[in-house]
Amino acid sequence: MAWISFPDLKPTYFVKEALFSLAAAVGKPLHLDMATINKTRPSCARVKVQVNLLFDFPKYVEMEIINEMTMETRMERVKIQYDMLPKYCKQCKVQGHEEETCRSLHPELRQIEINKDKDIIQEQKGSNNEEQGNEFATTGRRVIKRH
Ligand SMILES: [Zn+2]
Question: How far separated are the first and last CA of the chain, in Å rounded?
Fold first, then answer.
């Protein structure tokens, strides 16, 4: 079970049917939270979903919007935010950590644990891609890059 939010949602989506079809991209929609039902928090809608932790969780849902006047369709991206998703590692098949912080998938994280008292963590050779930096950023690790 997890709560997902749709931040900055357009008012047109602020009905149960629309929110449930958005949430279906993640799992089985169960119910809306009170603020969403009563529309007391128009900036953000929340839906409780039954999720399968083995699935990948999309960051966006693509919605096809049909203009009934012209019958033209366009795609709209709706951002999904995960509020209380239990951490689950598909590699180790245990709860408590994710693949991003998995030490059997990322042996270099052990290195960072060892070096965490130091302020400067040396980048590994040939791994100066941004992706790795972002990965650490999302797991809350402090990475100081040398220039
Ligand atoms: Zn793991």
Answer: 43
What is the distance in A from the centroid of ligand 1 to the CA of 57? 17
Ligand 1 center from residue 109 Cα (angstroms)? 12
Is the distance from CB of 20 to CB of 100 less than 8 angstroms?
no
How many angstroms separate the CA atoms of 44 and 75, rounded?
20
Residue 103 C-alpha to ligand 1 middle, in angstroms? 6
Predicted TM-score of the model (pTM): 0.59
Tokens of 59: 């960051």
CA distance 7 to 78: 8
The predicted-structure confidence for 88-123, as pLDDT tens digits, reads as follows 888 898 888 988 889 888 888 877 666 666 555 454
Q: Which DSSP string do the residues of 79-112 spell out, in sequence order?
A: E-EESSPPPEETTTTEES--GGG-TTT-THHHHH
- Helix, strand and coil in the chain, % to nearest 5: 25, 25, 50
Cα(107) to centroid(ligand 1), Å: 11
